[in-house]
Amino acid sequence: MASSLRMKKAAVIALKDYLGLSEYETLLVITDEEKREIGMTLFEESKALCAESIYLEMKSRTINGEEPPPPVANIMKEVDAVICPTSKSLTHTNARREASKLGVRVATMPGITVDTMIRCLSADHEQIMKLTHFLADKMRQISKIRVTTKLGTDITFPMKGRQVIPSTGVLRNIGESGNLPSGEVYLAPIEDKSQGKLIIDGSMGSIGIVDEHIVVDVVDGYAKSISGGAEAKMLEKLLDDAGKDGRAVAEFGIGTNYKARVTGDILEDEKVLGTIHVAFGNNLSMGGKIAVNIHLDGIVRRPTVYFDDEVIMEEGRIILEWDI
Question: pLDDT tens, 8-34?
């Protein structure tokens, strides 16, 4: 009962404080059989907050970035706001992009769990916003990002001129979209330019917690080789099934949510303060040029991060003064 009450409270926070749902608006809740409990909670709580709420349950997708059925994509265009607690991500889909173009606010919650929802939505969103925007402002002034770790990661992402996206989870303006809960700043590095070694030691999208480190050698913006244990083989197959561009470096991001933890759920994992993440596959939603039916993030713990030649994070700790 206590957990149910906390989830209802978290649902109201998501709908009112983050999505900014008003009594004059229409909301669409998209879920699937795996996330039915969360989807139904959001639906039930939303009925008292808006003019009309619609509950839509579809068959769960097989991979992150797979399109929803056309009827679902069409309904997304006909409402004011959409919230998507689904097992796989709808963030990097044409359906989401087309709805956003029409002014629909879309909050995606891929892989959301009750624990993540309760814990992460209780964080102080003003503090998350402050840190996220601080890092985004710094990032807009630089030409390249370098990441190193004691495990051997040493990779560079040229990104001058690329759109820098602060994702706070607060989606109150027309056409805004993003994850909920959130807390990250991210971008699409320049295609064909990233170089170096990436050692994923946290978790991997569509795979979960990494038991044996995944070692990715990146050459000219692509994962030339992927090595490690069983999880590395799984990642290799997932990316190769999407075609050549499945191996393309799609995203670099820094987590900014102090309540998030690495749990194996990539929605939460990529938001963890003290980590960075690198994704492979589709990056059209963040200003990139790679159009494939997959987007998978890998989490790196305790990184040292350079903005050009300035160290902004040392072994997972932000060393610049930002709480101003």
Answer: 999 999 999 999 999 999 999 999 999
99 strand-pairing partners: none
Which residues on adjacent β-strands are paired with residue 298? Answer: 204, 278
Domain boundaries, the chain: 2-120, 125-318
pTM for the model = 0.87
* CATH architecture of the domain covering 2-120: 3-Layer(aba) Sandwich (3.40)
